[in-house]
Write a structure and sequence with these properties.
heterodimer; A: alpha+beta; 5-stranded mixed beta sheet; 5 strands; globular; B: alpha+beta; 7-stranded mixed beta sheet; 29 strands
């Protein structure tokens, strides 16, 4: 199995994985980083969102061997102020899509600390929430700095 | 003393009589309005775990040696497996076991819909299992397929005998009516598409089966699996601490659980069986389509004198025929009502309960019909509804009803009509519509809770219910904290494990909070009584002068204020244990929820695009336990409703029964960009007849009236009568054309008359 080197949440890993392994599968099954969820496994819902060099990336349709850059998962964002903002705003129901929402939102506020509602909607439209927490997510991002 | 009684239980509009043991004396309800903890906004107890990705879902369970399952599903809508050869699959790398038809419940020899499970393979990896399933050789005999529900009704292919209801004399009343409106409404299949697909992990430990499952009903899974396998219930342990959405589709074990249990037995290893997203869209159940032929007759003053309907539920290959006629029977005062409901058995994926099953569909039909009546009578639709307000349900009084108060809350939103219509500009027409809501939501017995007070003065509530994302864990903690005079952060809730807590009801039918909540309060009152007894002896005071407030034991004269942890700390490792049970619902009363929604829309009459701009919701669900979580339920229900009203369309090839929309880019659920302004209000008055809480459920009511309110707003904006869900651009343009033709006809008539 071809070797690959990855930096995930600041830690370096040297791993073996079959060609064709998705980044999401690798994170969850090989590294136990189960905060990244797989909900559709074909890049339609955003639950598997991680950052690669700060850019939101659908890890379920990203081949692990093609990743060139630093990966940040929800486990690397556990102390981000957005976490508390999501809790305060009640921006979570079942919580299955929520880590992906936080990862996308963290990328947004890193690039644009004071996004407008329109900018939030544009950036977050790729993350589906079946429970419909969207108004709360919007509020969490608008108030992320506390 | 334990008292054995017979009482009525309701789930999703289906009633049954049950035996119940009543143990406690009833507790007095708290006064209306916010208390110290109950009625005040509380962030979720488990929010941090969920937001940080630390909550462990069934999808995250990884047991040592765990195998993965792939399922062979029927490519035909109706077929018989003539021969099947599993050997080629078993020969492939990593494959550990395979099952054919009849070897686990849900593996069908005669699949009756495309997507029904037929065979399954367990392998070291999912990829291996998937490859092995493709190697299974099947000889199919294709059978006769019926996909059209009306054809099924004509052939008398029913899931159950037709249900006929009549009160008064519908025909006579209709003949005497000043105005009659008849319309046919159609609603489409809606797929739950919970973010976590249906799945279970099964492991045999000795003769006990451990099931980790994404479920809405731990105890239902326990009893169904025990019954199927012929083992005692206590030999089945069901665990679900977190689950990624259900919306009604996860009330039973499903074939995946039986498959995983059997494969685990054969291999001696833990086995996961999880549906893929594509399987989820064909095999996990759906809200069924309906056809509703409705009639209303009214006097010229707007008094509704006759209501009639023929309802066809396109149930599918299996499932139950929900009470689509319920709103017609229950929402308005009308002495003459006749309804007939057919459950059509067809070769399509099965119906499973979906957030207020039947009432979502039936409210769309009825509330559009009532608005068409208002238009014909030239009456204000809100006024028409007030005039027909019902004061009882089929002769039964309500335990509480504050629909008029909901209307009063809605009035200011309704009064925006002129202002909204004036925004119409060019092709974009603006309008306002409304619809009322009626649904169940009173919960019922049995449900139980235990409480445990430890020497550090903390309380744990233990009940084997589930929090499916609605925030019930937090509501239970609030109820216990309120009863015990403790701050919320001193209360924990242990749930989600049938081996570690007492029975609690299913999380469906808006029933968790009204069912389990009173049991939690009773269990908290039980330990509170014991704490007071202990304090009275310790301080040589009478019990009646002692109370628990803010974490302290206090005396009425103010001389004593001792921290709880100091008193119970005396006991070191001893614990104070309490228990509580849910009592019966009030006898002879109808326990229902009510509400109204006012919707503002914009319609592009050239392209048929519809935008929902604002939704104002006013609901009456008794006492609100957590205003923060309650608002989220309302918003979530409304957003889900916007999906099935405007964009979600499950497409099927009507020749073959093949489902064409199996991915989330084809089946379009709302995104954050589709969300309107949402205003959420509650009457928030406890139901004085319902339990020690006076609280009803809120999971379902907000999705009930939305589709009709949107359709009625479209009529207000454009004059077009929408008759079908979803309101696709095609349906919108059809309705606009029809309205234009009607207007042209009228012009011609009036010219001719001149």
């Amino acid at each position: 199995m071809p070797e690959l080197e990855l930096t995930i949440n600041g830690q370096g890993y040297t791993l073996d994985a079959p060609v064709g392994t998705s980044l999401a599968h690798l994170l969850r099954e090989e590294l136990g980083l189960t905060g990244t969820k797989i909900a559709c496994n074909e890049g339609h819902c955003g639950a598997c969102t991680v950052q690669v060099d700060g850019v939101p990336t659908l890890s379920c349709i990203t081949l692990a061997h093609t990743v060139r850059g630093e990966v940040t998962t929800i486990e690397g964002l556990r102390d981000h102020p957005l976490i508390d903002a999501f809790v305060r705003a009640d921006a979570v129901q079942c919580g299955f899509c929520t880590p992906g929402q936080v990862v996308s939102a963290a990328a947004l506020v890193a690039a644009n600390p004071d996004p407008t509602v329109e900018e939030i909607r544009h950036s977050m439209a790729g993350n589906i929430c079946r429970c419909g927490t969207y108004p709360r997510i919007e509020e969490a991002i608008l108030t992320w700095r506390g | 003393m334990a008292r054995l009684i017979r009482t009525e239980k309701e789930v999703e509009g289906r009633f049954e009589e049950v035996w119940l043991v009543v143990e406690e004396d009833p507790l007095q309800q708290w006064p209306a309005g916010p208390q110290a903890v109950v009625g005040r906004p509380a962030p979720r107890k488990d929010a941090l775990q969920r937001v940080r990705g630390q909550a462990r879902f069934t999808a995250d369970i990884q047991l040592p040696g765990m195998l993965h399952t792939a399922v062979l599903r029927s490519p035909h809508a109706h077929a018989r497996v003539e021969r099947i050869d599993l050997a080629p699959a078993l020969a492939l790398p990593g494959v550990r076991a395979a099952l054919g038809p009849g070897e686990a419940k849900g593996l069908e020899r005669e699949p009756a819909f495309g997507g029904a499970a037929v065979a399954a393979v367990a392998a070291d990896t999912f990829a291996q299992a998937h490859a092995a399933v493709r190697a299974i050789e099947v000889g199919w005999e294709q059978l006769d397929v019926v996909l059209d529900p009306e054809e099924a009704v004509a052939r008398k292919q029913f899931t159950a005998e037709p249900t006929v209801y009549e009160r008064g004399d519908f025909d006579k009343a209709l003949a005497q009516a000043d105005v009659v409106v008849e319309s046919t409404y159609r609603t489409s299949v809606v797929v739950h598409n919970s973010m976590e697909t249906h799945q279970a992990v099964c492991e045999w430990i000795g003769d006990t089966l451990d099931i980790y499952i994404s479920t809405q009903y731990i105890w239902g899974v326990r009893s169904a699996v025990a019954k199927e396998l012929g083992i005692p219930g206590d030999k089945v342990r069901v665990v679900c601490e977190y689950m990624g959405g259900g919306f009604g589709s996860k009330n039973d074990p499903g074939e995946y659980t039986f498959i995983a249990a059997e494969l685990a037995k054969r291999t001696g290893r833990p086995v996961r069986c999880a549906l893929t997203r594509r399987e989820e869209n064909v095999a996990a159940g759906n809200r069924n389509a309906t056809i509703q032929k409705l009639t209303v007759g009214a006097r010229s003053d707007g008094t509704i004198v006759a209501l009639g309907g023929e309802f066809i539920n396109a149930v599918g290959a299996s499932g139950w025929s929900a009470m689509t006629e319920g709103p017609m029977q229950m929402l308005y005062a009308c002495d003459n009502v006749r309804t007939t409901r057919y459950g059509a058995k067809i070769n399509t994926p099965p119906m499973k309960a979906f957030r207020a099953p039947g009432f979502v569909e039936g409210t769309f039909g009825l509330e559009c019909l009532v608005d068409e009546l208002a238009a014909k009578l030239d009456l204000d639709p809100l006024e028409l509804r007030r005039r027909n307000h019902a004061n009882g349900n089929d002769g039964k009084p309500y335990s509480s009803k504050n629909l008029m108060e909901c209307y009063a809350l809605a009035q200011k939103h309704w009064d925006r009509r002129d202002e909204v219509r004036a925004r119409s500009d060019g092709a974009w027409k603006h309008g306002v519509g409304m619809a009322s809501q009626i649904w169940f939501g009173g919960g019922g017995p049995p449900s139980y809770a235990w409480t445990r007070v430890t020497s550090d003065g903390r309380v744990t509530v233990i009940t084997a219910m589930q929090d499916i994302g609605t925030g019930t864990r937090t509501a239970m903690a609030q109820i216990a904290a309120e009863e015990l005079g403790l701050p919320l952060d001193r209360v924990d809730v242990v749930l989600g494990d049938s081996a570690r807590g007492p029975y609690a009801t299913l999380s469906a039918g808006s029933s968790t909070t009204p069912s389990v909540g009173p049991a939690v309060r009773a269990a908290a009152a039980d330990v509170k009584r014991q704490i007071i007894e202990i304090a009275a002896q310790r301080h040589h005071l009478e019990e009646r002068v002692l109370d628990l407030k803010n974490g302290n034991i206090v005396s009425a004269d103010g001389n004593l204020s001792q921290p709880l942890e100091e008193l119970v700390g005396l006991l070191e490792n001893a614990q104070i244990l309490g228990k509580g049970a849910r009592g019966p619902n009030p006898t002879g009363m109808s326990v229902l929820t009510f509400g109204v929604q006012v919707v503002e829309v914009a319609v592009d009459v050239e392209t048929g695009e519809v935008r929902v701009e604002r939704v104002a919701a006013a609901h009456d669900v008794g006492r609100i336990i957590n205003p923060l979580g309650a608002r989220s339920q309302v918003e979530g229900g409304i957003i889900q409703g916007i999906g099935h009203t405007l964009s979600e369309q499950r497409l099927m090839d009507m020749e073959t029964g093949r489902i064409l929309t199996t991915s989330l880019d084809a089946y379009r659920m709302p995104t954050i960009a589709d969300v309107p302004e949402i205003v959420c209000e509650f009457v928030d008055v406890p139901d004085e007849h319902l339990t020690s809480l006076g609280a009803k459920g809120l999971g379902e009511p907000p999705i009930v009236p939305l589709a009709a309110a949107i359709a009625n707003a479209i009529r207000d904006a454009t004059g077009a009568d929408v008759h079908e869900l979803p309101i696709s651009r095609e349906e919108m343009l059809r309705a606009l054309r029809e309205a234009q033709e009607r207007a042209a006809e009228r012009t011609k008539e009036s010219v001719g008359a001149r």
